[in-house]
Amino acid sequence: DSLGGHGLSVGGVGILKGAKVREWVKEAGRMGVFIWTLGDFSTHVAADTAEGIYVKATAIAATVGAWVRQYSGPIYAEWFGSMVASSTPLNVAIAVCGLLGGGEIRLPAGNVLVDSVELTHDGISIFGAGKGVTNVIVPANGNDGFKIGDGTTLRRDCELGRFSITSATTTKSGGAFIKVNHAYDTRLTELECLYPYYGIDVLDGQYTVIRDVLFTYAASTNSEYIRSNGSQAVNHANVNLFIEDTSADGATAPLPRAGIKLGHLDGLFISKSQMNHCQYGWISEPGTGEQCIHIFADNSSFDTCTQDGMLIQGVGLCYRHWFDHCWFGTNDDNG
User: Fold this and answer.
1) Where are the alpha helices (DSSP H) in 61-127?
2) Listing from the earlier edge strand, what are the strands of the sheet with 65-69?
3) Cα gap 127→161, rounded to integer Å
4) Which terminus of the chain has fewer CB atoms gathered within 10 Å of its CB, N or C?
């Protein structure tokens, strides 16, 4: 029989007798050892349409057995194919990782296309090879890049980190690089965001951590680097957003509308961060029936903005805002 399209040929009789057959796949990016393993792998084969870990034998049902990659540690997304021009390999890697109960997926160095890629299972972490080494490209079609949660099913314990993320064009309109929508315990760390329309959009997140993230340049004067813009009437909860060691610097035109924009949020803790060179460093702007409460900022600056360092407005409720060792200076209008 043969191992998918990878050129392996072994005796079908030996397989059916239960003998373990080992073979090395040499295809670039997908290299590894596969062993013929008896058992019902029909669910795994159905999920792994790219044959990154599970490969169906040509003439034997997946209910009998499958070729299974031998590995320990993280799942490497490139096992599922090239991601330079397609998000499909990463979507398949997420599906397989979720089927296995969660875990870590590694992105390769170089460009990786991410177009509406949803973390569809709990406990999934996706890491690159480092900022400026792995470059995630989001198309200029108005879609989001990564999505954690679909607004209905609560997604728990997911993490993204260690890569740069940029738009395919410097004038992207609409969509967020990362959208958190009905998720619990989300961690976004060691990221570099260039030319976002919306950088990180927390529509409905509980205990979301943003740490060591750099926002540089903007796609539009309507851009917002970090926003918590969920509606109390529509979304389940927006509770406890933590921002640490994060910098936003519009640097050159077009300057983003805001470094941070809050619509509905109960609990923001920001420390050792800078929201500079924006139109507004910070906006708290709750709508009807919404509220921005329990806001605490420590050792942070909102500086060199063309409008205000901080603006509180809107028809909703804003109260309990504390600032300790913060800097609101050199803004064209008000601190």
Assistant:
1) 88-99
2) 22-25, 32-38, 65-69, 54-55
3) 5
4) C
**Whole-Å CA distances, 154 to 145, 183, 320:** 19, 5, 28
Q: Do you know the residue count of the chain?
A: 335
Beta bridge partners of 318: 292
pLDDT at 335: 79
- Identify the DSSP state of 78: G
Average pLDDT for 132-145: 93
Q: pLDDT above 90 covers what percent of the chain?
A: 61
Q: What value does the mean pLDDT take over residues 256-273?
A: 91
Question: What are the structure tokens assigned to 306, written together?
Answer: 């063309």
Alpha-carbon gap, residue 190 to 159, rounded angstroms: 11
How is residue 11 written in tokens? 């005796």
Beta partners for 186? 158, 208
- Give which of 22, 20, 25 is closest to 4, Cα–Cα: 25
Q: Measured between alpha carbons, how far is 87 from 82 in angstroms, rounded to an integer?
A: 9
Burial classification of residue 74, based on how many CB atoms lie within 10 Å of its CB (0-12 exposed, 13-18 middle, 19 or more buried)? middle
